[in-house]
Write a structure and sequence with these properties.
- With 376 residues, the chain is of the alpha/beta class.
- It folds into two domains: 5-168, Phosphoglycerate kinase, N-terminal domain (Rossmann fold, 3-Layer(aba) Sandwich), CATH 3.40.50.1260; 179-365, Rossmann fold.
- It has helices spanning 38-52, 72-78, 93-100, 118-121, 124-131, 150-154, 165-178, 193-206, 214-223, 240-243, 282-294, 313-323, 334-343, 358-366, 370-375; strands spanning 17-21, 56-60, 85-86, 107-109, 136-139, 161-163, 184-188, 209-212, 248-249, 253-257, 263-267, 276-280, 297-301, 328-332, 352-353.
- The strands form three sheets. Strands 3-4-2-1-5-6 form a six-stranded parallel β-sheet. A six-stranded parallel β-sheet has the order 9-8-7-13-14-15, with helices on both faces. Strands 11-10-12 form a three-stranded antiparallel β-sheet.
- Helix 7 (165-178) crosses helix 14, helix 8 (193-206) crosses helix 14 and helix 11 runs parallel beside helix 12.
Length: 376
């Protein structure tokens, strides 16, 4: 069983060096500054809790995909929430002297974990080196909980280990989403049906209605024999078990982009060979509105259209409908949160917003993840 850090008496945290694995993989703009602080605001609660208890927090995280990427912009963003000292290293004299100089309540951030190739490799020698920096380990990085990296699954072998407040909340909320109260309504978008097929079948069993959007909907149209033009299609298409399932819903109309860049809505079976499906349409919103209104449980992962190209209006309409519902709501996937933020619908009206993308989908399917098992 996974234990949370707030189960440790606060007096036992005072003066302790706590290695906090946070999910601070934040997006950067072209100037190299943090462009979205959603994951940071979610991670702050655990760090603030430890600081107020007098712990000495050594925060570790990864950023980007290039091992040369640095946590320097993350440190700059963190300073808007609390004082933090950035050490641009993962080991050696700079790290040891910074930790040696820490006082109760202090927070330091180390460099991008992926600068050491042993992190991604899941090498226990790196996990042991990191563990040697602290007395206690706290994993609060739900975003990476499906990875078997050294910082996620290795460190618990060497230190007393706990979940952070965010990781605990993610697990509790997703456990509830795996067993929704009826009537229940799920929306699943994204691409690559071949990777999402097991989850689609699981959600069809758990939810009263599963509405497929995004590029996954193109796969549905293709499987039904409709023309999909130049739209994105997966390597694998949904089978009859999915298409004929009584809980399965697909968009009834779509927004297409013409070769001249003009967009228009039309029925799903009227797409032309030179058109690109970029979103759902108003009739689809009308179809799901009563299902959202009567739902007691709502799960949503994936915007309805290609929001990064400006096709945001039906994601906005969906968020608006969900914001008016008093159902238990869980919404996640990095693109979903980013798209919702663009719509301007108040986040506090949308229920629980998960920091996880791949981690959320894998947890929904399996009910556990490698890093969570490592804490148990």
């Amino acid at each position: 069983m996974m234990h949370c850090i707030d189960e440790v008496p606060e007096g036992n945290l005072k003066g302790k060096r706590v290695l906090v694995r946070s999910g601070l993989d934040l997006p950067l703009n072209t100037a190299g500054n943090v462009s979205d602080i959603f994951r940071l605001t979610q991670a702050c609660e655990t760090i603030k809790y430890l600081s107020s208890a007098g712990a000495r927090s050594i925060v570790i995280s990864k950023i980007g995909r290039d091992p040369k990427d640095t946590n320097a912009p993350v440190a700059a963003a963190m300073k808007k929430f609390f004082p933090v000292f950035f050490v641009p290293a993962l080991s050696g004299h700079a790290v040891e002297s910074a930790i040696g100089a820490m006082r109760d309540g202090d927070i330091i951030l180390l460099e991008n974990l992926q600068q050491d190739p042993r992190e991604v490799a899941g090498d226990d020698s790196f996990a042991k080196e990191l563990a040697a920096l602290a007395d206690i380990y706290v994993n609060d990085a739900f975003t990476s909980a499906h990875r078997r990296s050294a910082s996620m699954t290795g460190i618990p072998k060497f230190l007393p280990s706990y979940a952070g407040l965010l990781l605990r909340d993610e697990v509790n909320q997703l456990d509830a989403a795996r067993k929704p109260a009826s009537p229940s309504f799920a929306i699943l978008g994204g691409a690559k049906f071949e990777t999402k097929a097991p989850l689609v079948k699981s959600l069809l069993t758990a939810y009263d209605h599963l509405f497929i959007v995004g590029a996954l909907a193109n796969d549905v149209f293709k499987a039904k024999g409709y023309e999909v033009g130049i739209s994105l299609i997966s390597n694998e298409l949904p089978d009859e078990d999915v298409l004929a399932h009584s809980h399965f819903l697909a968009p009834v109309d779509v927004t297409v982009e013409r070769p001249d860049g003009q967009a228009r809505t039309k029925k799903a079976n009227e797409v032309l060979p030179d058109e690109n499906i970029v979103d759902i349409g108003p009739d689809s919103i009308q179809m799901i509105a009563p299902l959202i209104a009567q739902a007691k449980s709502i799960l949503w992962s994936g915007p309805t259209g290609i929001y990064e190209r400006g096709y945001i209006s039906y994601t906005h309409a969906t968020a608006d409908l969900i914001s008016k519902s008093d159902a238990k709501k869980v919404i996640g996937g990095g693109d979903t949160i980013a798209a919702i933020q663009e719509t301007g619908v108040p986040e506090e009206q949308l229920g629980f917003l998960s920091t996880g993308g791949g981690a959320m989908l894998e947890y929904l399917l399996k009910g556990t993840l490698p890093a969570i098992q490592a804490l148990s």
